[in-house]
Amino acid sequence: MSNKRKLRPRGVVILVCFFALICVIVGLIIGKLVANNDQNGGKAPEQATPAASTPAPSSKPSPASPDQTATAETKETAETETKEPAETKQPVETKEPAETKEPVETKEPVETQEKPAADPASVPSEQAPSKVASAVVDLAKSLLGKPWRSGGKGPNSFDNTGLVSYVFAQNGVKDKLVSTADMKKAGKEVSRDQLKPGDLVIFTNEPQDRGEFVGIYIGNDEFIASFHQTKPVSIATMKAGSYWGTHFITARRLAD
């Protein structure tokens, strides 16, 4: 019986301690609830903590106060204001297409009328001598160097008129060609610009008492004649300005 009485006060103490522990736990729970309520409602009333014990520190971070949140917001706005705006890229200029030049009109070539070929008959006579005239020239050239002799009729020596008479007679020309007077009347007269090889050319000869002088035209303003005792049958020029060119009288065509 004595042992049972001793155990009763211990049981009461245990019960009291257990009850006190329950109260502490309930108080902690109520404190948490109040703290949560303060966070939701924006108020932070003073928490009454029991004097018996202090609550254990919570591992969760404490919520930020309204002043701290306001300060953070102002910092963020200040940072956003201080940031410079991003550079805006200028629009790329689009090049206008180059103007296309209109094609230049090409003029059609003007049709040139072909000139008809010159008629051999209309070519200067010097370029187209007759067969007889060509033979006259050839024979006269073959006699170059033959000596002059007064009254000479050929074939080894000639005077001035004797050479002309011999060459034309050898080629079938029947005109009387004894003197210069006969020769000025033979055949037909031709102007100086119409001369062709084989024509008879007549000049004055100084002094005047020596009479006129004759020769056979061979082309290129040249003629063949028998001149005098110191100059045999040879070629002389009758170009403008020359001695015979300034003494030209007329020309006769005996061989057509």
Structure in words:
- It is a single chain.
- The relative contact order is 0.10.
- Strands 1-6-2-3-4-5 form a 6-stranded antiparallel beta sheet.
- It has a domain at 125-253: Alpha-Beta Complex (endopeptidase fold (from Nostoc punctiforme)), CATH 3.90.1720.10.
- The chain is rod-shaped.
- Mean pLDDT is 74; it is low at 43-62 and 115-125.
- Helices cover 34% and strands 12% of the residues.
- It starts with a helix and ends with a strand.
- It has 256 residues and is an alpha+beta fold.
- The protein is built from 6 helices and 6 strands, in the order αααααβββββαβ.
Instruction: Bin the helical content.
Output: 25-40%
Describe the strand arrangement of the main beta sheet, using strand numbers: 1-6-2-3-4-5
Extract low-pLDDT stretches.
43-62, 115-125
- Oligomer classification: single chain
Blueprint of the fold:
Blueprint (H helix, E strand, L loop, with lengths): L1 H40 L24 H17 L48 H12 L17 H11 L9 H4 L4 E3 L9 E5 L7 E8 L2 E4 L8 E4 L5 H4 L1 E6 L3
Antiparallel strand pairs: 1-6, 2-3, 2-6, 3-4, 4-5
Q: Short description, anyone?
A:
This protein has 256 residues and is an alpha+beta fold. The protein has helices at 2-41, 66-82, 131-142, 160-170, 180-183, 243-246, and strands spanning 188-190, 200-204, 212-219, 222-225, 234-237, 248-253. The chain has a domain at 125-253: endopeptidase fold (from Nostoc punctiforme) (Alpha-Beta Complex), CATH 3.90.1720.
Which descriptors would you attach to this protein?
256 residues, 6 helices, 34% helix
